[in-house]
Write a structure and sequence with these properties.
Elements (H helix, E strand, L loop, with lengths): L1 H27 L6 H24 L4 H15 L2 H13 L3 H29 L7
Helix pairs in contact: 1-2, 1-3, 2-3, 2-4, 4-5
Length: 131
């Protein structure tokens, strides 16, 4: 039960941090490109690199702290950080095919499933097309 509470609190803080950073970036940099989302994703990637570097290289952070930071906070802040870390691990282990597969499966699979979800709603609602 303790781990669930750590995840819940971390997740809440991560979601609020994502909202805040995205809003701050969009407020100062208006345009067509989603810079707020990019800022969140890149910040999350940097943070997971720092945290996992400290965990692996220095054996820092107790299991509860890791759960709070990684599963709670960063997972709701951005999932790109997790995908990026997993891909980094494949590359670190010289598993190039798995790294490329992970990138392609997440990026292309994600886009395809967004389209499938979109089209399913349009179909169920009786609308056609993607407009």
């Amino acid at each position: 039960m303790r781990h669930i509470m750590l995840i819940a609190v971390g997740g809440s803080l991560g979601a609020v941090a994502r909202y805040g950073l995205t809003g701050l970036v969009h407020k100062h940099f208006k345009g067509l490109f989603p810079l707020g989302t990019l800022a969140v994703n890149l910040a999350g990637c940097l943070l997971i690199g720092v945290i996992m570097g400290l965990v692996v290289q220095r054996q820092l952070f107790a299991p509860g702290t890791r759960i709070f930071l990684l599963v709670g906070l960063l997972s709701s802040f951005t999932t790109l950080s997790t995908v990026s870390y997993e891909t980094f691990q494949f590359l670190h282990d010289h598993e190039i095919a798995l790294a490329l597969g992970n990138i392609l499966a997440n990026a292309i699979g994600g886009i395809v499933l967004v389209a499938v979800g979109w089209l399913a709603v349009r179909f169920v609602a009786g609308f056609g097309g993607m407009s």
